[in-house]
Amino acid sequence: MTAISRNPHLRQDFAASLVVFLVALPLCVGVAVASGVPAELGLVTGIVGGIVTGLMRGSSLQVSGPAAGLTVLVFEAVREFGLPALGVVVLATGALQILMGTLKLGRYFRAISVSVVEGMLAGIGLVLIAGQLYSMSDAKAPASGLAKIAELPGALFGAVGKTDALASLLLGAGTIAVLVLWKRMPKQVRTVPGPLAAVGLATVVALVFSLPVATVEVQGLLGSIQPPPLSAFADLASIGLLGTVVAFTLIASAESLFSAAAVDRLHDGPRTEYDKELIAQGAGNALCGVLGALPMTAVIVRSAANVQAGARTKASRVMHGVWLLLFAALLPNVLGYIPIPALAGILVYSGAKLIPVREIVSLWREHRGEALILVVTAVSIVAVSMFEGVLIGLALAVAKTAWEASHIKLEVVDKGAGPVQAHLSGNATFLRLPKILDSLEALPQDRPVELDLSGLHHLDHACRTALENWAERHSAVGTEPVRVTAA
């Protein structure tokens, strides 16, 4: 029995795997360099995401690897705790994901407010763009997100007056221009993925013109793998490190499962099994942690490329991991020719795509509360930090839901004679109790009242007690007793 007869979709999957490999290669390297770790570690995560996570059940066509969305958080973790601690954080993240998947908590990530997730990605995108523009300008980026943005004009202006910095800036800008214009190229040209074309052209230009720009440092695949020492696990007693683990877990899991939902809309194949996908992501991250590599998430860019290239089964993503492994093992020195400003340009472009400008405009027109949550989450991430920004967004979303859940309407019908009719509808909670009592106490004291509560969806104990007390007071002045229609 031939391989094709065993897998009738092997040809489509093989072709798709090559496309995904070509898309993933520059992104794996770029994310690693931007995260402040050896470039090869990005390839390690891509290999694990393809071969290990790719073989497991969950989402059949979704592709995992290092993601731009975690770059800022990884960079901060490495700067604060050191590279050995990164493996501990990623391993703990994987263990938590496996636990949550086993407890069937994967589906609950879909309950997270979309505005919070989009705000999180927008905040990451802003910090990523600002940070990578410094790399393009051959300048050192400040530590905080606000400082990155505030000092950026000076850094860009300063680059214009320096030959090396100007060459770096122009090469990065040219990379972005190729990515923006690639969609308008003829179809035959676009068979080469845009990121690969942009990096390839930048590399050729840098070599031909001998541009004085920084290139990727190469250590070799085995030389870059550094499992965390046992002493690094003692850092798990640190509140700061535990907070980082929680942030990694929430963001990586939410991004992966939201990506799975998006990929499901792109094809007609089997739907994602969310809990199993979370276990698969956890297994991949656990192995990445053991190897001291970057954390992984499902990546919508690679996943969409996989579907659009005609992939039919998980074989395509597994083969893409094999191609990454072969490249890292056989051609590692090629990485040394890639200019860092070109990789920075790719991440600036990727960061811009994380900012949902159209969604913000649409939300502002239809749901201003959601738009506010999105913007506040993004600004908080830039101004404070990733973890605190997400917590602020979640708190706002909960507060907004509580406010809307307590919405109540009082309709008064007074025909001038007979009883005054008061109809309450919605949710009567203690949050709206002052408004309810103010409206009821404003009713005429010398007229009988019929209070209709049948339109209420919820009536909490505090409101029920307050309404009974109001009815007693209203009836105590000699008026007919208030007639109440129960909820």
From TrEMBL:
Q: Out of the domains of life, which is the source?
A: Bacteria
What is the protein's name according to its record?
A: SulP family inorganic anion transporter
Keyword annotations from UniProtKB, A to Z: Membrane, Transmembrane, Transmembrane helix
Q: Does the keyword Magnesium apply?
A: no
Matching entries from Pfam families are given as: Sulfate_transp
Q: Where found, per UniProt?
A: Membrane
**Which cellular component terms (GO) are annotated to the entry?**
membrane
Q: How does it sit in the membrane?
A: Multi-pass membrane protein
Residue spans crossing the bilayer: 14-34, 41-61, 81-99, 111-134, 165-182, 194-216, 236-258, 322-351, 371-399
GO terms of biological process kind: transmembrane transport
